[in-house]
């Protein structure tokens, strides 16, 4: 858990505050367009690039901004959308997927719902991306929501759009074009907009001028828009369970369906052609996606799908589709090994845009034998119905169940000796029943607690392979990956859980921690609040919420959340905090310390919480409170150099604010402790400078 302090420390070192980060029944096909004419009353740091082995092509460092708005703050009920936030989540998932965009999670910023304000859009587009991206990078900007025309000027609609003040609250598309073309540096720039009138980057008279401004001599822009400038964009529950039609095909294309050359890479040209053709056919030519031919490198690499590579294969014929129906609610559909959505018995799942030929399909439901995998043929230009029948409950051999129950009993007793005995039991259960996914999960948990992480990883993934909809296994794997510092893969696993089940509180809590470690503070705040809404007594969710609030400059809110964490995890109180804490530790573990050392983890987190309170109160100029909290932090871990450094800063800040020299004496003491505990950390160098200044001040004061 000390790793969290390294990420946090400041922010601490500066006396100045940290920088703040700005922040229904199913309907038929719906248009994403609002048109307000003038005079008419309105209605109510990234890792180094990697390579993909399929093509030995370098993957550039990549950044993305994903925006999705469905329910607008100031629009009437009839003008709200259904699926644009779901679209944004789908784009986010494919961008961070290894077979897809291959973006690092911390490099993809997401604004959905009430976070997609005009101020936040401006910050991300006009400050973050221009300051972050470099000449050899790849940048993707995606928007799903309303687009409209007002006074012959095209706008994207943020969450807080005011229909009475279009010019002041909409984001002009010509401004977007100017920012992308002249302010954001990148080798490849990608703009994908799923909004009505998204093709209208500018009024017709100025189209040529703005098209030129979108380009630069050293950059390549790929602009793929949902429709022509005077067309509507549509969304419907008929596409993949509910998507904008355009975004549905963008995601399918990036998953590999657009790879016409079968080289394992989806290029800009391939995606443009795939999306244009399929959307046009799906809407009977009422919606025609556009991309400016010649304005981008046609070989721009957008997605990596090496598993689909087949060099020398001919281009596929016209796409077809599959429609899945089932006899049971909650059946997850897999096509060629990838989750394609969930189908219910009264709501078929339609998957158009598939390449013709044989595909492997299956339907899974936890606790039942799967239907499949089996082969189904997609015919050019046709849709075929696939009936999935989930009929046979899993029956376990008595020997397997007995071994599993014995393993659980040993596992619950704790300690290494019992864990090793439990391993034998779970292995025996799997030997008796190779489909026993619960035994595979618990074998993984035991190996994890024995610090056999590679074996644990194999067992947890085996549980998921047996039952792909086993969300507990995915959440547990995500928690272990988080413990090991594999944050990108942890986020991918946990994101898959909450997309499948938005009420899975444990996954939201773990996701809040992973996103905070990636310094994606607004996303972490949202995830933590989701966890707290579902399980208000999850103390650790309050802790990670507090951490991200503090590191975005929301100090008073952070204080409240840290205090709530401390209250809920006070083992001496009569609250349920202790039970809650141990249950969470039992499920997923904390750090490198498991059941036998839960008290150590508890002390570590309280140490960190008091440190966070100290830092927040210091930056709120509440110096006495800050000193008290840092003293508590030191009491939980006297060997923590950061706690001593924070305490020294609190005393120094009090001396500076009051003009008194007395606080400088304990400040010097704790700066010295910092150096003694870890002379190599950067804070120790700063502590030496502070001590030199303090000695000068004390010498002067004594004269």
Residue stretches low in confidence (pLDDT < 50, at least 5 long) are 1-29, 31-56, 199-218, 573-597
Alpha carbon gap, first and last residue: 46 Å
The value of Rg in angstroms is 28 Å
According to CATH, what is the topology of the domain at 30-308?
Rossmann fold
Oligomeric state of the chains? Answer: single chain
Q: Your description of this structure?
A:
The structure is a single chain. This protein has 703 residues and is an alpha/beta fold. Among the domains are: 30-308, Rossmann fold (3-Layer(aba) Sandwich), CATH 3.40.50; 320-388, Carboxypeptidase-like, regulatory domain (Immunoglobulin-like, Sandwich); 601-702, Tetratricopeptide repeat domain (Serine Threonine Protein Phosphatase 5, Tetratricopeptide repeat, Alpha Horseshoe), CATH 1.25.40.10. It is built from 24 helices and 24 strands. The protein has a 6-stranded mixed β-sheet with strand order 6-5-7-11-12-16, sandwiched between helices. β5, α2 (84-96) and β6 (108-112) form a beta-alpha-beta unit. α5 packs parallel to α6. The radius of gyration is 28 Å and the shape is globular. It starts with a helix and ends with a helix.
Keywords:
Serine Threonine Protein Phosphatase 5, Tetratricopeptide repeat, alpha/beta, 16% strand, 703 residues, 24 helices, six-stranded mixed sheet, four-stranded mixed sheet
């Amino acid at each position: 858990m000390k790793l969290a302090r390294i990420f946090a420390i400041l922010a601490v070192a500066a006396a100045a505050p940290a920088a703040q980060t700005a922040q229904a029944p199913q309907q038929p096909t719906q248009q994403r367009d609002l048109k307000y004419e003038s005079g008419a009353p309105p209605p109510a740091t990234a890792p180094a690039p990697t390579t993909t082995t399929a093509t030995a092509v370098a993957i550039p460092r990549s950044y993305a901004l994903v925006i999705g708005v469905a329910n607008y703050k100031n629009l009437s009920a009839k003008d709200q959308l259904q699926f644009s936030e779901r679209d944004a989540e789908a784009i986010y998932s494919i961008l961070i997927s290894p077979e897809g965009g291959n973006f690092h999670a911390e490099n993809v910023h997401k604004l959905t719902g009430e976070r997609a304000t005009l101020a936040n859009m401006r910050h991300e587009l006009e400050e973050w991306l221009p300051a972050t991206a470099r000449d050899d990078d790849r940048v993707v900007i995606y928007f799903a929501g309303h687009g409209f025309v007002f006074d012959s000027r095209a706008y994207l609609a943020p969450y807080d759009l005011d229909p009475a003040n279009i010019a002041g609250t909409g984001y002009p598309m010509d401004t977007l074009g100017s920012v992308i073309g002249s302010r954001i540096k990148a080798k490849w720039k990608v703009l994908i907009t799923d909004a009505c009138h998204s093709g209208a980057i500018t009024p017709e008279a100025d189209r040529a001028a703005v098209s030129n401004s979108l380009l630069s001599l050293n950059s390549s822009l790929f602009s793929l828009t949902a429709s022509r400038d005077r067309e509507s964009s549509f969304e419907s529950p008929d596409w993949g369970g509910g998507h904008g039609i355009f975004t549905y095909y963008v995601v399918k294309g990036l998953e590999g369906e657009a790879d016409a050359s079968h080289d394992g890479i989806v290029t800009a040209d391939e995606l443009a052609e795939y999306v244009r053709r399929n959307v046009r056919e799906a809407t009977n030519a009422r919606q025609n996606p556009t991309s400016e031919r010649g304005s981008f490198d046609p070989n721009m690499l957008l997605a990596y799908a090496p598993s689909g590579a087949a060099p020398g294969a001919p281009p596929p014929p016209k796409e077809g589709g599959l429609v899945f129906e089932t006899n049971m609610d909650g059946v997850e559909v897999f096509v060629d090994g990838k989750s394609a959505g969930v189908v219910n018995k009264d709501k078929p799942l339609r998957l158009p845009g598939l390449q013709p030929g044989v595909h492997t399909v299956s339907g899974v439901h936890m606790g039942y034998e799967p239907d499949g995998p089996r082969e189904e043929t997609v015919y050019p230009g046709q849709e075929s119905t696939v009936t999935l029948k989930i009929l046979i409950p899993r029956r376990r051999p008595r020997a397997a169940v007995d071994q599993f129950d014995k393993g659980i009993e040993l596992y619950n007793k704790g300690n290494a000796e019992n864990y090793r005995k439990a391993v034998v039991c779970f292995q025996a259960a799997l030997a008796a029943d190779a489909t026993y996914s619960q035994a595979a999960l618990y074998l993984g948990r035991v190996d994890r607690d024995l610090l056999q992480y590679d074996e644990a990883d194999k067992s947890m993934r085996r549980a998921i392979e047996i039952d792909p909809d086993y969300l507990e296994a995915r959440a547990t794997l995500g928690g272990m990956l988080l413990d090991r510092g594999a944050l990108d893969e942890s986020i991918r696993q946990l994101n898959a859980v909450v997309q499948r089940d938005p009420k899975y509180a444990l996954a939201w809590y773990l996701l809040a921690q992973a996103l905070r470690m990636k310094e994606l503070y607004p996303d972490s705040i949202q995830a933590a609040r989701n966890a707290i809404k579902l399980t208000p007594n999850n103390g650790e969710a309050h802790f990670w919420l507090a951490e991200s609030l503090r590191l975005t400059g929301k100090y008073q809110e952070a204080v409240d959340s840290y205090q709530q964490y401390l209250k809920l995890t006070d083992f001496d109180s009569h609250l349920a905090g202790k039970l809650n804490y141990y249950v969470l530790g039992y499920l997923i573990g904390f750090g490198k310390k498991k059941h036998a050392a839960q008290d150590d983890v508890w002390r570590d987190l309280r140490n960190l919480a008091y440190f966070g309170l100290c830092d927040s109160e210091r930056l709120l100029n509440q110096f006495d409170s800050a000193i008290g909290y840092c003293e508590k932090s030191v009491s939980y871990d006297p060997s923590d150099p950061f706690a001593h450094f924070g305490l020294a800063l609190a005393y120094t800040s009090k001396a500076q604010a009051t003009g008194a020299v007395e606080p400088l004496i304990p400040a010097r003491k704790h700066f010295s402790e910092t150096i003694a505990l870890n002379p190599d950390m950067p804070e120790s160098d700063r502590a030496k400078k502070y001590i030199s200044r303090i000695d000068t001040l004390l010498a002067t004061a004594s004269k």
